[in-house]
Amino acid sequence: MNPLKSDRWFSSTPLTEFPEPEVVSLHHPVLLCHGYGAIVSLVKPSPLYDVAMLMRRHNVLAFAPNIVPYAKIETRAARWVDVMQKVIDQTGTDKLNIVAHSMGGLDMRYALSQLDAAPYTASMTTVCAPNRGTSLAELGINAPTAIRDRLVDLMDWMGNHVYPGDESDALGSVEQLTRHYVTQKFNPAVPDAPDIPYYSFSCKVGKATDHPVQVINRYQNNHIYEQEGANDGMVSVESAQWGQHMGTGRLSHMEQLNLRVKEERKPLFEAFWLDVLKMLEDKGH
User: Fold this and answer.
1) What is the domain extent for residue 138?
2) How many angstroms separate the CA atoms of 138 and 176, rounded?
3) How many whole angstroms from its chain centre is CA 50?
4) Position 218 pLDDT exceeds 60
């Protein structure tokens, strides 16, 4: 007689042979470049810190430093080049895999094209970057002047306090995210660096999808949908595509940073970034 029914208990809890996270093998470390804004930095060590820790759990040496959150592309790109050199010196590697989120994608495209960062770059991946701008930036610029100026002052104050090394320019940087600026000025002046593979990922939630968008982001999600189509609440799928488009995830722009992610959607966050890593592995980087 077996009152504990141990056979049944053990059969229902079999051991997994390899319970550790899946191992991903890359030839070069990953530098994660964050986008516009400082809000996330108030609750995390850096906007992409959780992504870096996830990548490290998968055997990939990843770095997610901070740079000035509200500044023009030219300033931010120069800071990323400084960061690249620090990471290269620290790790002893000769090149880095660049994975750039949101405005960070424009920063790094500029750095590769205009600041001689290409020799130190193994691959360039943009994640939900406004490669053709975003109508959300135009919405902000066209807001009533009193409201816009008050918000700009607040963002500049916040940026100068969380990152005092460079003076913030919240309005100037938003102007560089408009569709007109990116498509008519930035893209023609910033050609892709030769011999560097460019990849991109997009995301979509809310309007015209089966994936929810939080109430606080519903208005901007609908606005961008009317102007550009499916989007992640900040950047449209069409705008996010650059180089070889590798797929469309199901996370909002903030969820991509592991911010405001409901527990049932945590696996989507982890799977999305694991897909980015496995793509780099499959491409031999």
Assistant:
1) 23-282
2) 10
3) 11
4) yes
